[in-house]
Design brief:
By secondary structure, the protein is of the alpha/beta class. The chain has a single domain (4-177), classed as 3-Layer(aba) Sandwich (Rossmann fold), CATH 3.40.50. It is built from six helices and six strands. The protein has helices at 20-41, 62-70, 77-82, 105-112, 124-137, 154-168, and strands at 4-9, 48-53, 90-94, 116-122, 141-143, 149-150. Strands 1, 2, 3, 4, 5 and 6 form a six-stranded parallel β-sheet that branches. Helix 5 (124-137) packs parallel to helix 6. It comes from Lysobacter arvi. One of its GO terms (molecular function) is hydrolase activity. Its EC number is 3.-.-.-.
């Protein structure tokens, strides 16, 4: 459906940092919900954009990032299995927390005619939140489905969802509530 875009933020992730296992525990249910949402949105023409950290690898490309994170020894491999990018998906590698900072995301969204963004991924209280803040400043309407985002702790997740609702007027209802107009 023209006007919408699904952003999957940092779910292609090796989780190779302290407490990566904590994030995996909350990211797996979110990944399942994102996969269901993507499956529902794709047939109606909503493009999917993977907005992913470049992990400081300035010479890598998205396929290399996917391969590294999908490796059998990667803690995040189950996430990649659930959300493996398809050939018609888009991707943007980001060097910072926000998907907009120093990336072509704004231009891509313009070319796609997106006015409403459905933000999903990890970590809600860091990269998803930074991307949401920048998206709001660029005038996008925001959906951040509560079942499609994860943080290391329930407290961070709850506080971030409340702040997104209160400060950015983001719709944070569960993904099954998303209806496209």
């Amino acid at each position: 459906m023209k006007g919408h875009a699904l952003l999957i933020i940092d779910m292609i992730n090796a989780l190779d940092f302290p407490d990566g296992d904590k994030l995996l525990d909350t990211a797996l249910p979110a990944a399942r919900a994102i996969a269901r949402l993507k499956k529902r949105l794709k047939p109606v023409g909503v493009p999917t954009i993977y907005v992913n950290d470049n992990y400081g690898q300035w010479r890598s490309d998205f396929k290399q990032v996917v391969a590294r994170c999908a490796a059998p020894d990667s803690l995040g491999a189950p996430l990649v299995k659930l959300l493996h990018p398809e050939d018609d998906d888009y991707f943007v590698l980001k060097p910072e927390r926000s998907g907009f900072r120093d990336t072509p995301l704004r231009m891509l969204l313009g070319k796609l005619g997106a006015k409403r963004l459905i933000l999903t991924g990890v970590a809600l209280d860091v990269c998803v939140f930074a991307t949401a803040t920048d998206a709001d400043m660029h005038g996008f309407e925001l959906y951040v489905p509560s079942d499609c985002v994860a943080s290391e702790t329930p407290g961070r997740r709850a506080a971030s969802l409340k702040l997104l609702r209160d400060s950015l007027q983001a719709d944070t209802r569960a993904s099954r509530s998303i209806t496209l107009r």
